[in-house]
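ARCHIVE CARD
SHELF: 3
SLOT: left
DATA:
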Amino acid sequence: MTRYLILLSCLGAISGSPPSYVVHNDMLTERIIGGQEAQRNSWKWQVSLQMADAYYPEYFDHICGGTLISTNWVMTAAHCLQMPIEVNYRVALGEHNLFELDGTEYFVGVDRIFIHEDWDPTDLGNGNDIALLHLSEPAYGNGFVEIGNLPPEGDILPNNYPCYVTGWGLTSVGGSIPARLQEAMLPVVDHAICSENDWWGSQAKENMVCAGGDGVRAGCSGDSGGPLQCYRDGLWQIHGIVSFGIVPYCNTYQKPTVFTRVSAYISWLYNTMKNNGGY
């Protein structure tokens, strides 16, 4: 694999309680690269996947995004979970500002993890970067949390189809994670184009979705595991899971953000849920 690939996960300190430092006004201008702050609680299935701090276990670090796909399950990227077995994970639902208590969020622990059996952390180009998290308690609707819709099995989006990536990933190279959820519209780049040599070449597989590549808008570190959502057939559907991009700049021309294509894994998702406690 080329040394320029990077998984789009990160660590950034947050907690369930307001931290002692002040969020400065310049946080208001921070973006997913080329994007903007999302309208508060507009993407109600988006979650923040968090890990307990090794030294202060009452505090949690945002490491990745994720999508609530049933009351008991969150979908994310496999590479977000390459941590020691004793790590304590939780998800934040109804979240918008990571550094403040908005009054809309709540937190649920993760008691089981299921990583796709063909995921190979040494070979990003193989795909299968998908995992399921079983929640220790069922998620509930509070007006700010909803279940994301999965696409039909095998559905392929046409070239240039408008979709949105959301997350708390870096807004600039070498920067810090933003306080508030960000969004960017990324048009789909179909496989025939994305797999051309001057795009992603052979690293773009048919079980992936490419989106972006205009040199302006992109997902970046910290967005991993989060959704690519597209309005299709009258509703928002989760067509992708943020997987990888390129360094040193996430918004490199003709190197679009690469997502796990959810429609290629519908059977795996439903079978895993069904065989491990149900939906």
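SLOT: right
DATA:
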Amino acid sequence: MTLTTFAVTSTIGFGTLYYAYPVLQKPMAASLDASATAVTGALTTSVLTGALMAIPVGRWLDRRGGLRS
């Protein structure tokens, strides 16, 4: 049940993020005093960075473990 809940909430969360982006792109660009191209480039860079770091960080967490209290 926990895995199913995580899968559903992750799908809804990512879907909301990516569908809201075109609506929020112009206001974000205006508030940052940046072009729409720069804002889109920042999103693309963050997604690619997350994808590239997922495997090494996952391996590091497997070796070291998660947060310890």
